[in-house]
Write a structure and sequence with these properties.
GO terms for molecular function: ATP binding; metal ion binding; succinate-CoA ligase (GDP-forming) activity. It catalyses: GTP + succinate + CoA = succinyl-CoA + GDP + phosphate. Its cofactor is Mg(2+). It holds the Pfam family ATP-grasp_2. This protein is α+β, with helices and mostly antiparallel strands. The termini are far apart. The strands form 3 sheets. Strands 1, 9, 10, 11, 12, 13 and 14 form a 7-stranded antiparallel beta sheet that branches. It has a 4-stranded antiparallel beta sheet with strand order 2-8-3-5. Strands 4-6-7 form a 3-stranded antiparallel beta sheet, with no helix packed on it. Helix 6 crosses helix 7. Among the domains are: about 90 residues, Dna Ligase, domain 1, CATH 3.30.1490.20; about 120 residues, 2-Layer Sandwich (D-amino Acid Aminotransferase, Chain A, domain 1), CATH 3.30.470.20.
């Protein structure tokens, strides 16, 4: 069955979370993930990356947008409500004025951003992504992940995007669709359209959404991903279907095949030193609260 019971879904999602906690996968910054999506023709917002270098002004000069989204790049969520160690508030800002973009980046880069997901001291911001703002009229959720229970990739979709998907599964399980995928074949067109309709896309957007899902599955297989999570997969007022925010995780065992991707790894700069030391010996270190050890 395509729709699964709420408790089964919760188990799947919990397994996904547990797996990601127990295995030290490569993580990419938002702009790096978007760059990968772009290479596989997945529709995203146009963006540029600034680093407080002398080239920033020239890069921005050639980037015309009605409205800009300025986002600090760190491996942590909650950036919008975060605070920098210099007192500047917010790791995400929106402005229609190009001259304000550089001012905002200077307040971010070189300072530590503190959010609910960072250490108390925060994480140093070294780059800022500047993206074209889009007028989103609907947000949906899409995820492709490797699932042990299904012995292969699984697609999870929900019309309730932009929120915590685990909460959606718990409170409104009827808004979740789960479909096992064949790793050796493209997703059938009938399945793609069924997912698009479940996500409540209509008219021409059904075909557009179907095409975007297929591109994401192609990317998933090509880069040895263990998870591609798009939240939100958004519909704009211009009829676009865009991957606004993406989270990608990769199989560490595929590093020899994906050298270019793994070369982008910055997690060592932001990880627990104990994780880094353990990884040097092909071990996984998982930090836990409490005073009970397990060997």
């Amino acid at each position: 069955m395509i729709n699964i019971a709420a408790h089964t879904l919760r188990n799947t999602l919990n397994k996904k979370i547990t797996a990601l906690q127990q295995v030290r996968h490569l993580n990419l910054l938002e702009f790096q993930s978007k760059d990968l999506l772009q290479k596989y023709n997945v529709a995203i917002q146009q963006f540029k990356v600034l680093d407080n270098s002398g080239k920033d002004a020239e890069v921005l000069k050639q980037f015309e947008c009605p409205e800009y989204v300025v986002k600090a790049q760190i491996l942590a969520g909650g950036r919008g409500k975060g605070t920098f160690d210099n007192g500047f508030k917010g790791g995400v800002h929106i402005t229609t004025k190009k001259d304000e973009v550089l001012d905002l980046t200077k307040k971010m880069i070189g300072n530590r951003l503190i959010t609910k997901q960072t250490p108390k001291s925060g994480i140093m911001v070294k780059k800022v992504m500047v993206a074209r703002s889009v007028n989103i009229i609907r947000e949906t959720y899409l995820c492709i992940l490797l699932d042990r229970e299904h012995n292969g990739p699984v697609l999870i979709a929900s019309p309730a995007g932009g929120v915590d998907i685990e909460a959606v599964a718990e409170e409104t399980p009827e808004k979740i669709l789960t479909i096992p995928l064949n790793i050796d074949k493209p997703i059938p067109q009938e399945t793609l359209e069924k997912v698009a309709k479940f996500l409540e896309f209509k008219g021409k957007c059904i075909k557009t959404c179907a095409e975007e899902i297929q591109k994401l599955f192609t990317l998933f297989k090509a880069v040895d991903a263990v998870q591609i999570e798009i939240n939100p997969l958004a519909e704009t007022d211009k009829g676009e279907v865009i991957s606004v925010d993406a989270k990608l995780n990769f199989d560490d065992n595929a590093q020899y095949r994906q050298k270019e991707i793994f070369a982008m790894d910055i997690s060592e700069e932001e990880s627990d030193p104990r994780e880094i030391e353990a990884a040097k010996h092909n071990l996984n270190y998982v930090a836990m609260d409490g005073n009970i050890g397990c060997l």
